[in-house]
Design brief:
Helices cover 27% and strands 24% of the residues.
Amino acid sequence: MPNQSSSREYYPVAKTCSYGAPLTLVISMRSYGKSFGFTLRGLKRWAKTGKQFVWVRRYDDETAKTAPKLLDDVLAHGYMSGYEFRYTGRAWQGRKRTDDDTAAWSTVCHCLTLSKGQSYKGVAFPNVDTVVFDEFIREVKTPPGYLRDEVGVFLNLLKSVFRDRPNVHAFALANACDLTAPLLAFAGVRSEAQISTPSGYSWHNGKSVLVHYARDAVFAAQEANTVVGKLVQGTPYAAVMLDNEFANGGDNLLGSKPARARYRYGFVFGGDKFGVWCDDIAGVYYVNNKIPNNSGLLFTLQAGDMSLDVLMVERAAPFAKGLMRLFGFGRVLFDAAATRERFVKMLGLVGLR
């Protein structure tokens, strides 16, 4: 897509949009043209219908750095040559080129920051029908992390922008890095296997969320012949950058809970719930997201998760330390890679490194 004459494969924006999902999560290799394609789509829709789009980044420094250059790549490749654009006040404006230079400017794209979502309440966006959240998955162990209650913040932002209008759509774009991303958890995605369909497309949350896990062998082969592609060949970076594999999606410490395992207790961490089960015969603990009804109190290691039914335990309590020791001995298995990674984050509160 970045070059009409190019023989390279790029992200199929039109096909993804044809599904008409309220929210679509797009996960693909780097340099596959996701951001380019959705930016070009927004510009073409504005030129044809006057509809605007919103571009979202998580933190304000990201917005400040990327928003002024959002259209640069599209325009550099010769698209929208009959129009001119300018960036002003965290928004892009455009107009048709005319000989007398009198055409009026109008807003094309609003560039918003997710962490400042509260400040957009009461702001009207009546002509916006598309929201694009870029880089919704962060690289593993790269600070700063996700927002607290990121899903809630994002949904509130969509409500502020869309109000109750029909025929509006949100897209979240990212590379395959971290299976614990909040929007993946919201969609119920806990492993690569769930989204590795023949087409790459899969429905979740009662067909309200579409996930496109794009793995293009032709593009991967072409990317492998680029300068950076040759540099990462044979390194741990190749799987993520060329093959679109999740950095923390391996099968280490995974195992299905046997029927004889009995529920012991449950944890809450950042809104995630973990059920801890024990197989006394094998001496193995299993962690999944299943907690029996009427199981009693749950536990948490941080005050933000406390409620009437969730009791906070001190970080140094033998109860929590003992669980970490079992994990260190390899006696704790998980039902999915995402469960394992979120649980490991929780154990960081009791000193796990």
